[in-house]
Specification:
InterPro entries: CellSynth/LPSAsmb/PSIAsmb, TPR-like_helical_dom_sf, TPR_rpt. This is Transcriptional regulator. This protein is mainly α. 69% of the residues lie in helices and 0% in strands. It starts with a helix and ends in a 9-residue tail after the last helix.
C-alpha cells in the first residue's frame, strides 16, 4: 500500500507543470489562433520562470504581432539582458524599435544582427530596416535626428505618472536630463512630477529655469498656469492667462496644450477657439482632448459640438459616462454652494483628520468638479486611504460594491444616512457643512466602535435633531420625527445611542 502511494506521489511530482510546459502550451495555442489562451500561458510561464530569456523573447514577439509595441519592447529588452548575444532577440529588438519610430536604435540592432548572423534567416529583413532608417534620416537636416530612446523613456515616465508612480518617473526623467540637459520637454514633465508629489516650489523653479533658457516655451507657461490654478493663486494666474491669450501657436501640440489650459481654468471662449481649430483641421484627439472640447463647447453655447465630442470620448472610455459638462446644470447645482467650491473640497480631502476627509470624499460625488479633482494625481492617493475612506470615494464615483462583512454592511447603512441628510440640506450652505462636520465626526467614532447603523432613517432624524437642538431652542423631536417619517420614541432611542460617539472634553 505504501509503495503504491509512494509511486502515485512520485508520478504527480514528476508531472507538475513548469515554465517550459506553459511556454509550449502557449505556442500550441498560437498555432490554433487561440490568442487569449496563448497570452495566459505565457504569463504563467514567466511567473514560474522569469529568468528564461526564450520565454521573454517569444512572449515579446507575440505581443508585438498583436500591436502592443511598448509592452513588447519591455519584454524583448529583458530577454536581451538575460541573453545579450541571442540573434533572434537582436533582430526582434530592431523590429520593435522600428515599429515605435525609434529608427536610430532600430538601425543599430539591425546592424548588430547582420554582424552576428550574416547568413541568418532574418538578414534580408534586417537590411530592409537599415535602408528604411537611412531613407528617413535623409529627410532631416544634420543634427535634427531625434534621439528615439529619449522619446520612448519620456513616454514611459508619462505613463508612470498616470499610474501615480511619481517617484519612479522622477528617477527616469532625471536620468535622461543627466545625458540630455537641454531636453526641455523632459524638464516640463519633471516639473509636473514634482508638483504632483507636493514639491510645488521646486516644480516652479524647474519651469522658470526652462523659460530662462527658452523664452516663450508654451508647455512651461501652461504648466505654470496649472500650478497657479490648483494653488488658488488668482493674481499670478490672471497675469499668466493674460500672457497666454496673446500667444498664437501654429503647431498642433501647442494649440492642444493652450486650449486644454484655458478650459481647465474656466476660460472657455479661448479654449473653444483653439480646440475647435484643431478639429476643423482633422485632428483626431485622445480622451483628454474630447473632454476639454466638450466642456469648452458646452459653456460657450455650442451644445451640438459638445455632445458630439463627448460621444467620441465615451467611445474611447465608457467609464466617463455621467461626467458630461451639462450634467451639473441639469442637476441644478448651485454654483455658490460648497459642493462647487473647489478650494473647500480640496481642503477637506487633504485634511489631516479622517472625519474631514470622509466628508470631502462624500461631497465630491455631489460636485461638478468631481472629474477635475479625482483625475488630479496629487490630490487622492487611494492606497493611502483607510477602508472607510475608500468606500466613501467609491460611493462618490458610483462604483457598485456588495457588502461582504459586518463593517461593510455598517458603512453601507452609514452612506444611506449621509444621503438622507444630504437630501434635507442640499445644496450645502454654511449651516449644512456644520451639520455634516458633526455627522462625520460621529460617524467615524461609531465605525471605530463597530456600531451597526441599523436604522438609517432614524439615525438621520436623530443627527438632525442633535444638530438643530444645539442651536435653536424651538426645535422639537416631533418636528424632526415627522420630517424623516419615524416615531418620536425611535428618534429618542437613537439620540441616546449616538450621543456616546460625539467628542467631548473633560476638565
Amino acid at each position: 500500500m505504501d509503495k503504491k502511494q509512494r509511486f502515485k506521489k512520485d508520478k504527480i511530482v514528476s508531472f507538475l507543470p513548469d515554465g517550459d510546459f506553459y511556454r509550449k502550451r502557449a505556442m500550441q495555442a498560437m498555432q490554433r489562433e487561440q490568442f487569449s489562451d496563448a497570452e495566459k500561458y505565457y504569463k504563467r510561464a514567466l511567473e514560474l520562470n522569469p529568468e528564461d530569456a526564450l520565454t521573454q523573447m517569444e512572449y515579446g514577439v507575440f505581443i508585438m504581432e498583436v500591436g502592443r509595441f511598448e509592452d513588447a519592447y519591455e519584454l524583448l529588452r529583458t530577454a536581451d539582458e538575460l541573453d545579450p548575444n541571442n540573434e533572434e532577440t537582436t533582430f526582434y529588438l530592431a523590429e520593435v524599435h522600428a515599429h515605435l519610430g525609434l529608427l536610430r536604435e532600430a538601425k543599430q540592432y539591425a546592424n548588430k544582427y547582420i554582424a552576428l548572423s550574416p547568413d541568418g534567416i532574418f538578414v534580408e529583413e534586417a537590411h530592409e530596416i537599415v535602408e528604411f532608417a537611412d531613407q528617413e534620416e535623409t529627410y532631416l537636416e544634420d543634427g535634427e535626428v531625434p534621439d528615439g530612446e529619449v522619446l520612448f523613456m519620456q513616454e514611459k515616465a508619462r505613463k508612470m505618472m498616470e499610474e501615480g508612480n511619481f517617484e519612479q518617473a522622477i528617477d527616469v526623467l532625471e536620468d535622461l536630463l543627466a545625458d540630455y540637459p537641454k531636453a526641455w520637454a523632459v524638464h516640463n514633465n519633471l516639473a509636473l512630477a514634482y508638483f504632483y508629489i507636493g514639491k510645488e516650489k521646486h516644480a516652479e523653479e524647474i519651469l522658470y529655469d526652462v523659460l530662462h533658457e527658452e523664452k516663450g516655451n508654451i508647455h512651461a507657461l501652461c504648466n505654470l498656469a496649472v500650478f497657479f490654478y490648483y494653488g488658488r493663486d488668482e493674481e499670478r494666474l490672471g497675469s499668466m492667462m493674460e500672457l497666454l491669450s496673446k500667444i498664437k501657436p501654429y503647431q498642433v501640440e501647442h494649440r492642444y496644450k493652450l486650449g486644454a489650459t484655458f478650459a481647465l481654468t474656466g476660460r472657455y471662449e479661448e479654449a473653444y477657439y483653439w480646440l475647435r481649430s484643431l478639429q476643423k483641421r482633422g485632428f483626431q484627439g485622445d480622451v483628454g482632448y474630447y473632454f476639454w472640447l466638450s466642456n469648452a463647447a458646452y459653456f460657450t453655447g455650442h451644445r451640438q459640438v459638445a455632445e458630439q465630442a463627448y460621444e467620441k470620448l465615451l467611445q474611447m472610455d465608457p467609464s466617463k459616462a455621467g461626467f458630461e459638462p451639462w450634467k451639473s446644470i441639469e442637476d441644478e447645482l448651485n454654483p455658490d454652494s460648497y459642493e462647487e467650491d473647489v478650494s473647500f473640497l480640496i481642503e477637506k480631502i487633504s485634511n489631516p483628520y479622517r472625519s474631514e476627509r470622509m466628508f470631502g470624499l462624500y461631497l465630491l460625488g455631489k460636485s461638478s468638479h468631481l472629474q477635475e479633482i479625482q483625475s488630479h494625481p496629487g490630490y487622492i492617493n487611494v492606497e493611502e486611504l483607510s477602508a472607510s475612506e475608500q468606500l466613501f470615494l467609491a460611493h462618490s464615483l458610483d462604483y457598485e460594491f456588495v457588502a461582504e462583512n459586518d463593517f461593510e454592511k455598517s458603512l453601507e447603512k452609514a452612506l444611506t444616512t449621509c444621503d438622507l441628510l444630504y437630501e434635507q440640506y442640499k445644496p450645502l450652505d454654511q449651516q449644512g457643512t456644520h451639520l455634516f462636520q458633526m455627522w462625520f465626526t460621529l460617524c467615524e467614532n461609531a465605525l471605530v466602535g463597530e456600531y451597526a447603523f441599523a436604522n438609517p432613517k432614524a439615525i438621520a432624524a436623530a443627527v438632525d435633531y442633535m444638530f438643530q437642538s444645539s442651536r435653536y431652542d424651538q426645535v422639537t423631536k416631533k418636528s424632526l420625527a415627522e420630517k424623516y417619517d419615524v416615531a418620536v420614541a425611535t428618534l429618542t432611542k437613537y439620540v441616546q445611542e449616538l450621543i456616546q460617539f460625539l467628542p467631548y472634553t473633560t476638565d
